[in-house]
Amino acid sequence: MGVQATNLVLALLVVAFISFRGAESRKARLLDSFEYSAINCRAHTASLTDFGGVGDGTTSNTKAFKDAIDHLSQFASDGGSQLFVPAGKWLTGSFSLTSHFTLYLHKDAVLLASQDMQEWPVMKPLPSYGRGRDAAAGRYSSLIFGTNLTDVIITGNNGTIDGQGAFWWQNFHKGKLKYTRPYLIEIMFSNSIQISNLTLLNSPSWNVHPVYSSDILVQGITIIAPITSPNTDGINPDSCTNTKIEDCYIVSGDDCVAVKSGWDEYGIAFGMPTKQLVIRRLTCISPYSATIALGSEMSGGIEDVRAEDITAIHTESGIRIKTAVGRGGYVKDIYVKRMTMHTMKWVFWMTGNYGSHADKNYDPNALPVIQGINYRDMVADNVTMAARLEGIAGDPFKEICISNVTIGMAPKAKKVPMDLHRYRGDDERGNSTTMWHATGPRA
Ligand SMILES: *[C@@H]1O[C@H](CO)[C@@H](O)[C@H](O)[C@H]1NC(C)=O
Ligand SMILES: *[C@@H]1O[C@H](CO)[C@@H](O)[C@H](O)[C@H]1NC(C)=O
Ligand SMILES: *[C@@H]1O[C@H](CO)[C@@H](O)[C@H](O)[C@H]1NC(C)=O
Ligand SMILES: *[C@@H]1O[C@H](CO)[C@@H](O)[C@H](O)[C@H]1NC(C)=O
Ligand SMILES: *[C@@H]1O[C@H](CO)[C@@H](O)[C@H](O)[C@H]1NC(C)=O
Ligand SMILES: *[C@@H]1O[C@H](CO)[C@@H](O)[C@H](O)[C@H]1NC(C)=O
């Protein structure tokens, strides 16, 4: 067999705008700074069936969830409460959680997202985005929604939440949606949140979206959506502080983890970064997207991100930084180590001309700062191109350190294993111009 697998060893790559700085000492400091206080058991508990819930897969339980949670909310300052969802198929529209509260799904409980539009209240766009992402006017509230809460757990013995997304994907493709598709779980302006031990299927759009929140643990989540489904991102920490994502398995049509912090002038004005984020033991399959994406909405800044023990089985890219002129903000102090990757186009991908703006009013002088990006101890095989790094002219991406990375090229790999471009900073309004081009070591 004429398979020409090439082993390309990138041992501390330092090219032009790339330099090294003391990564290790910072890393140690980050490791110590994460603490997740135990969340108490709940003094009060109830079952969805106590509030008229019917688990037959066809009766709507939206009102049962509302009545149950309204009732249980009175115990917030009296030991908290738990709502138990027994085995069964529980059709429901969007419902909202309360504080000091656990939603617990039996292992054979399946929440089925309703396809009746009356069951999905419409909300204003997020302030850091300025508009809905699919449709400017607004957004359907997520299936499980919470805002201004503290101490919330959504868990189960691997119970299931099925978004029945095909309905939404088709309407999205046909341009029939008046508002932005709902997410499966969205928690805003909250703290002390755990989302654990659940299976999430076929989300209409993003799966788990903590936004403007802190002290979040996402653990033991299986997320599955067709690899061609639109925008079915796995977990999107967005303007959040102190988030830990652990032991998750994600197959999806978009980025497995997408770290965000608002869009262009809206994100800059809101000014809330995502920081202190740990991602560990993630397995990702997403042939058309990234294992971990930073951006493209990063206008509030992204900093102190540490990812380790990541497995990508078939993805378009390993780590991708996406940004554009007009974003402002920053992506800095990113540490990724111990990634194992099979079959991908670009292990490392940075895109400075991502485009896609909230509106035309973005500031062309708002340039993102990309700095302190550290990748080490990684192995990849069957790779088309090791790196594709495209910066922004006049706004160099700095302090990029790639070390101890072994990349096995695919039989049909590009002749140029690395492509380092810098573009003029005028993105889609002008023409991208390659300022310079360098190639890595040849096979
Ligand atoms: C939730 O908190 C945010 C930020 O503190 C505040 O602006 C908003 O009014 C609060 N919303 C509700 C419903 O209390
Ligand atoms: C949870 O369920 C999913 C889907 O059935 C399965 O793939 C996964 O292995 C289960 N996880 C655990 C920890 O049992
Ligand atoms: C998830 O389930 C595992 C195994 O049953 C358990 O050890 C772990 O504590 C659970 N995680 C959370 C955060 O509830
Ligand atoms: C290089 O990375 C591999 C894992 O990909 C690891 O086993 C090895 O210890 C690393 N070498 C050094 C010198 O850190
Ligand atoms: C290598 O990647 C190609 C796609 O680029 C895929 O078709 C092929 O099955 C992969 N080979 C292996 C051994 O995984
Ligand atoms: C982009 O390229 C086109 C065709 O080459 C040219 O007509 C146009 O003036 C260019 N625009 C800018 C902003 O450079």
From TrEMBL:
- Keywords annotated in UniProt: Cell wall, Glycosidase, Hydrolase, Lyase, Secreted, Signal
Q: Gene3D superfamilies of this UniProt entry?
A: Single-stranded right-handed beta-helix, Pectin lyase-like
Task: Tell me the InterPro entries matching this sequence.
Answer: GH28_Enzymes, Glyco_hydro_28, Pectin_lyas_fold, Pectin_lyase_fold/virulence
> One MF term in GO for this entry?
lyase activity
Can you say what this protein is called? PECTIN LYASE-RELATED
One Pfam entry for this protein is: Glyco_hydro_28
Q: Does the keyword Hydrolase apply?
A: yes
What family name appears in the similarity comment? Belongs to the glycosyl hydrolase 28 family.
Where is this protein localized, as stated in its record? Secreted, Cell wall
Any single biological process term in GO: carbohydrate metabolic process
Q: What is its main location?
A: secreted
* Extent of the signal sequence: 1-25
The segment annotated Disordered runs over: 422-443
